[in-house]
């Protein structure tokens, strides 16, 4: 990856590192449908505002709107809801580990769908090293007393499959749409989907009653969705879905580092060793030999 790709990649990881914490806070006050609907709404408003500022062109053909109408909810609304729903019965640490399966699903799906993102031993090795690092890093949090639910865990794994599949098919079918517009369209169609389905499926469909919930919604919407989704789809089309999906390995690293810095949490050997493995996995997946790095003549 080029330096500009690394900059966006790391920024995205930093923004999303706290997402599981804010989701956990949000579902204590309102239902997962309502939380997802508000998040998608503020995310869409942020992305549209950026698009208007940049004077982007919006799609006008029906085919493009149908593509985003399917891939938008599949890439955002549905998996975000599944994670929010799952975190009602499982810990955020468990959710972040299960979400780290996204790269494993992505490399498998991309191999059969895309021509420029094939499965290789190097990629698989790197992904497995990163996943092992994630488990090691969060091993202290996976205590016997931790809240656990098989159904909640299954919901997060299903969300990971949605993330992986939509990233691959989004890369294939949205190449013709400009970057900022692409991210905004995913959020617009997700917001429309959630505000139609949410009030019908979740009874009661509650508005936040606590100030901390509004803070969670604004963080998840403006930063975690509006800015992050634009960056996400920029990376997916620039470096491919497999490499982009590795950002999920940064979530627990960022979350635990923030805990050490701001909450005086314990700096354990698991944190250090897990972080080293995750960083090493990024190097392995993105490593190119001198021969590979040479341009074709």
Descriptive overview:
This protein has one domain. 75% of the residues lie in helices and 0% in strands. With 297 residues, it is an all-alpha fold. Helix 3 (32-54) packs across helix 4, helix 4 runs antiparallel to helix 8 and helix 4 (62-86) crosses helix 9. It has helices at 3-16, 19-26, 32-54, 62-86, 92-99, 102-113, 121-137, 150-173, 179-201, 211-239, 241-245, 250-262, 269-286, 290-293. The two termini are 21 Å apart. The longest helix is centred in the last third of the chain and has 29 residues, at 211-239.
Which geometry do the CA atoms define?
globular
* Helix/strand class: mainly alpha
Q: Count up the helices.
A: 14
Number of strands: 0
List keywords for this structure.
297 residues, mainly alpha, 75% helix, globular, disordered C terminus
Give the SSE map.
Layout: H1 3-16, H2 19-26, H3 32-54, H4 62-86, H5 92-99, H6 102-113, H7 121-137, H8 150-173, H9 179-201, H10 211-239, H11 241-245, H12 250-262, H13 269-286, H14 290-293
Helix pairs in contact: 1-10, 1-12, 2-10, 3-4, 3-9, 3-10, 4-8, 4-9, 5-8, 6-8, 7-13, 9-10, 12-13
Concise overview:
The chain is built from 14 helices and no strands.
């Amino acid at each position: 990856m080029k330096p500009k790709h690394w900059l966006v990649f790391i920024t995205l990881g930093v923004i999303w590192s706290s997402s599981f914490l804010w989701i956990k806070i949000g579902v204590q006050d309102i239902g997962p449908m309502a939380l997802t609907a508000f998040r998608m709404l503020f995310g869409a408003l942020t992305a549209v505002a950026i698009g208007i500022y940049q004077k982007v062109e919006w799609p006008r053909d029906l085919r493009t709107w149908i593509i985003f109408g399917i891939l938008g909810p599949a890439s955002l609304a549905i998996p975000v809801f599944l994670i929010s729903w799952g975190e009602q019965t499982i810990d955020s640490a468990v959710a972040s580990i299960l979400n780290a399966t996204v790269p494993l699903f992505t490399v498998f799906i991309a191999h059969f769908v895309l021509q420029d993102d094939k499965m290789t031993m190097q990629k698989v090795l790197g992904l497995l090293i990163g996943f092992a690092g994630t488990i090691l890093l969060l091993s202290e949090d996976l205590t016997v007393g931790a809240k656990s639910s098989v159904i909640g865990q299954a919901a997060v794994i299903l969300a990971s499959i949605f993330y992986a599949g939509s990233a691959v098919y989004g890369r294939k079918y949205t190449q013709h749409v400009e970057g900022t517009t692409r991210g905004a369209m995913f959020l617009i169609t997700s917001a429309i989907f959630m505000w139609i389905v949410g009030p019908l499926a979740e009874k009661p469909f509650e508005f936040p009653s606590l100030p901390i919930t509004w803070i969670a919604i604004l963080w998840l919407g403006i930063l975690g969705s509006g800015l992050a989704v634009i960056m996400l789809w920029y990376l997916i089309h620039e470096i491919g879905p497999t490499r982009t999906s590795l950002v999920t390995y940064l979530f627990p690293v960022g979350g635990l580092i923030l805990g050490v810095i701001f909450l005086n949490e314990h700096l354990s050997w698991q944190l250090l060793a897990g972080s080293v493995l995750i960083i090493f996995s990024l190097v392995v997946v993105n490593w190119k030999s001198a021969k590979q790095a040479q341009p074709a003549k």
